């Protein structure tokens, strides 16, 4: 479903070249739920932007649902859903319901299919009580549920999430995690999840990829990740060791 083959992406900054992603190869199969971890500046957002076609790789080959994202961005948009936790894709001054209707028109989703999908998402994400509220008046947790619905209205095969639980309280986080778990298990949606919240990783991801300085530093199951450190280590300690090369303080 997602294939990267020796992908590189660099940026020219004044006279220097920053290699944000370097010689990165991995494959994510249909139906997987994969955590994509890495310290600040490791290259996660750059990878995600290449998956959606926002950025073109400087070298190598990217395929999502068999498509080259930078060349087939419009076609790919029908197969992929993307949520950036720190930014909303909803219309700030419009009620949530109107944002959804605009998305339906943009994606050319047929009205009956849209209605049943929206009904299902309204129930599972509990959107009913704020459907007529302008997005700017929503709480962060409500807005995030709205953004998730917006990304899923066209029933994409792949969902890419960039920090979807950032700033959420424990109850809201649990609700979003439960929703994502069910989406993956019941509908087979492939999920790539970028987060700094290791609770998200522990509770959701069977497989974890860790990127550091633009290169893949670990790719394996959650159990294999935990086995890289002594038995009693917490996931925070395991990941700190991998980020810094030394045990957590
Ligand atoms: N448009 C850009 N121009 C120049 N440098 C960039 C650009 N985008 C990213 N970079 C650089 O590429 C590197 C990787 O950045 P990226 O945003 O992909 O990291 P990240 O893993 O998503 O970090 P974070 O966890 O902090 O969000 C960083 O050194 C960053 O400064």
From TrEMBL:
GO biological process, any: response to antibiotic
Subcellular location(s) per record: Cell membrane
Keyword set, alphabetical order: Antibiotic resistance, ATP-binding, Nucleotide-binding, Transport
SMART domains: AAA
Cellular component terms (Gene Ontology): plasma membrane
SUPFAM superfamilies, alphabetized: P-loop containing nucleoside triphosphate hydrolases (SSF52540)
Domain (ABC transporter): residue spans on this chain: 2-238
Topology relative to the membrane: Peripheral membrane protein
Superkingdom in the source lineage: Bacteria
Main location: membrane
GO molecular function, one term: ATP binding
Pfam families the UniProt entry points to: ABC_tran (PF00005)
PANTHER family: ABC TRANSPORTER ATP-BINDING PROTEIN (PTHR42711), ABC-TRANSPORT PROTEIN, ATP-BINDING COMPONENT (PTHR42711:SF1)
Annotated protein name in UniProt: ATP-binding cassette domain-containing protein
Organism: Nonomuraea turkmeniaca
